Amino acid sequence: MEGNAAEHLFDSADETPVAADDAEPRERPELAGPTADDPLKLYVRQIGDGRLLTTAEERELARRKDEGDEVAKRRLIERNLRLVMSITRNYTRAEVPLLDLIQEGNLGLIRAVEKFDYKMGFKLSTYATWWIKQSVSRALAEQGRTIRLPVHVADQVRKVTKARRLLGQKLNRDPSLDEIALEIGITPERVQELLDLVQDPVSLETPIGEGDSSVADLIPDLSADQPELETADRARSSELLEALAKLQPRQRRVVIERFGLDGVRPRTLEEVGANLGITRERVRQLEARALRELRAIAPALELYLRT
Fold this sequence. Notes:
This protein has helices spanning 39-47, 55-66, 70-78, 81-88, 98-115, 124-146, 151-171, 177-184, 188-198, 227-233, 237-245, 249-258, 269-276, 280-297. It is mainly α. It folds into 3 domains: 1-23 and 35-126, Four Helix Bundle (Hemerythrin (Met), subunit A) (Up-down Bundle), CATH 1.20.120; 149-209, Butyryl-CoA Dehydrogenase, subunit A, domain 3; 231-307, Winged helix-like DNA-binding domain superfamily/Winged helix DNA-binding domain (Arc Repressor Mutant, subunit A). The radius of gyration is 21 Å and the shape is elongated.
């Protein structure tokens, strides 16, 4: 099943060529001697250092992916696994193991790769950030609702919701009750009973309003106690990407780095200036001009584009 790719990405590790300087195993003392009791360490060792793709490499793989090349799709996923770890570690909860959240984030990454359009001119990491956060937030929401149920019932609920997500990845739509029931070996009636217990979040593909927008176009966030971040949840990622595409390349880079739209923390004026080889004041000017243009292009982004 395609959805299981997030759990078995490395069953065929020999399919991925290794750079010459990576031919010999690297010493990583902090991860030395992982065992079955250290699944997270094993996972980190499996994904390795994960050299980032260059822009040219990413565009070429994305082009091949769009033509149906599954190897190219797999490479895009594998090279962005560390992005999932970077995002997911910010949302750890005591009741949910980090590795479980990483697996959920991987599902979001897979979906992002499938929908990624390299012609928009953005890196995959910028686009995938929204999908990864959405997948992780759904998993945490489900867990929050199941911890108050009897253990055996909570286990059944988790099996049902996981089966639904994985089938959704495979079928590219919400699976029916019959399909979920067949997958885990229970009756459709029982599937419905279990889903009713948690009132699972709406599908990523659920339409919003009369247009083509869906829930997937919303920017997710788990920080409900931070009002300024709640406003970001209402900003549409697709609208943001389209608006950014209309900026000059340097202005776009400044906005992406200043607001952390590439999955990394927001950078200071000094950090952005160092990255671009310009002064702090020049970064401030570029940012101010870019924000004025973005607000003119898409007024709905006003609340989101705040420092």
